Amino acid sequence: MLISKYSAPDFDPYGDRASANPDVPWPAPVADGPLRASVALPGSKSLTNRELVLAALADGPSLLRSPLHSLDSENMVQALRALGTVIEERPGSGPFGADLLVTPADELFGSTTIDCGQAGTVMRFVPPVAGLALGPTTFDADDSARGRPMKTMITALRAVGVDINDDGRGSLPFTVHGTGRVGGGSITIDASASSQFVSGLLLSAPRFDDGLHLVHEGERLPSLPHIEMTIAALAARGVTVASPAVGEWMVSPGSIRATDIAIEPDLSNAAPFLAAALVAGGSVTITGWPATTTQVGADLADLLPLLGATVERSGDRLTVSGDGAAAGGIRGVALDLTTGGELAPAIVALAALADGPSEITGIGHIRHHETDRLAALAAEINGLGGDVTELEDGLRIVPRPLHGGVWRSYHDHRMATAGAIIGLAVPGVEIENVATTAKTLPQFTQLWQAMLTEGAP
Ligand SMILES: O=C(O)C1=C[C@@H](OP(=O)(O)O)[C@@H](O)[C@H](O)C1
Ligand SMILES: C=C(OP(=O)(O)O)C(=O)O
How many CB atoms are located within 10 Å of the residue 302 CB? Predict the structure, then answer.
């Protein structure tokens, strides 16, 4: 298991023994009263993995303070190390593990195999870096992630001059034959399946000979805030980057500045905890909420009130309060979540406990996340007695009285946490393979239990 050291000596990344064994389902705890909890969360996956890539391509050593330590970030660290980047642990600035000092390689070298695990950010951000390395780099992933779409990245890299060997199916595994240089230039791609194709190309683009002029043409462009996060991260390191129109980006060739950066807490991973306040009633506070951020999780402050929550900000604390599902405190909603598909599993779990029907649309692309999340959410909620219908690009959820049962997680961290949300109100929900939460939040069960016991009479 690729979990690196944590500052707390007795830190157990799995929270408890049962959750460490994927064969033993985790009994999701039921909330026995209103919550009054304050939760600190580890660093953002999206920020950590962008900053690791940029640091590896930068003009000197960078320090990442309070980065995420999880399977996704560990896969990124190992990937960049395999290409010659030196990544060393330094005493942690925060409670969730070491800081990372990243020293770029004088020259990136391939002749290696990279295990992307389940990380979309590794499989979409690192192949362009491998194009800049000398020698072949083979990319592979967990069985459950091998089918995730890669065709757009393969064709895009070929279009900027990178030689790739694949089996023609547009998925992993494939081999990037890096020559140490990438031409770059003007290309058009279809990023309908994932914004990560755009982000991955933009992150390496300053190191392409001619930079990159990238145009998206396709039926939809999901997760725009994640692309804006990429642009902001590049700009913060002195890269000249612009988006002259929606679906068009330009990156000038040039150096990427080394920096010292603090990684914000993962606001998308705040979703299940904040949702808990609506389900159980009472309040949940997330500490360290940034004043300004590019994370789409910040939208929870606007989304959760639509479902009946009250949201308050005080300094760096964001508090969500609710009346509880039993008191009819969750309202049905019609929501387009095109920009924040990552938040959908938590919102859908809330909708299953609401006082009326919901329709969540704009999220067809989440069929290509860790699993087909539309099919998985419908199957698992319906398996507990619910009434969820798959739409082409979303879900229609009609709340029904739910009963206990096994909730399958499909190797998907957000499926596991969505089941935990429902389990707060429905006795007898058992989450299969809750350890899958280690993808982005190895401490999930521990933090969830602490949220439920804190402030309890
Ligand atoms: O760039 C990123 O960090 C991410 C982009 C989004 O991907 P999609 O555009 O594939 O939804 C998001 O869902 C994922 O969790 C993280
Ligand atoms: C879609 C997700 O992950 P990935 O970065 O692997 O695409 C997610 O975390 O919800």
Answer: 9
